[in-house]
Specification:
With about 130 residues, the chain is mainly beta. It contains no helices and eleven strands. The strands form two sheets. Strands 2, 4, 5, 6, 9, 10 and 11 form a seven-stranded mixed beta sheet that branches. Strands 1-3-8-7 form a four-stranded antiparallel beta sheet, with no helix packed on it.
């Protein structure tokens, strides 16, 4: 089993930056695809970014492309999401996820992931 715990959320002004983290326990995330999703009030959960199992591919949602970067530490026990040029519409609860059987074509699909964190709130003020 993998437990995921997000941290680093908070309140930031539009145009600012924030980095959220997701720490894995139980085992490292080597061999797992990892991803970030977000959910704003009254909206469906939305794909944000993903890193393939081998780390060779990264994918981003259209709304965050060029502003957000997903990465992991060398031991692949922590997943990061660096968020720059934040906008009020980025306000949401951000969730990290991991899956051992996620193929490249399914990286954007939340149903492909086995493990989820509890989420961390990111609020961007205008």
């Amino acid at each position: 089993q993998v437990q995921l715990v997000e941290s680093g959320g908070g309140l930031v002004q539009a145009g600012g930056s924030l980095r959220v983290s997701c720490a894995a326990s139980g085992r490292t995330l080597r061999g797992y695809a990892v991803a970030w999703f977000r959910q704003a009030p009254g909206k469906e959960r939305e794909f944000v970014a993903a890193l393939s199992r081998t780390g060779g591919y990264t994918y981003y949602g259209d709304s965050v492309k060029g502003r957000f970067t997903i990465s992991t530490d060398n031991g692949k026990s922590t997943v990061y999401l660096q968020m720059n040029s934040l906008k009020p519409e980025d306000t949401a609860v951000y969730y990290c996820s991991a899956g051992s059987g996620v193929i490249t074509s399914s990286l954007r699909n939340q149903r492909a992931y086995d493990f989820w964190g509890q989420g961390t709130q990111v609020t961007v003020s205008s």
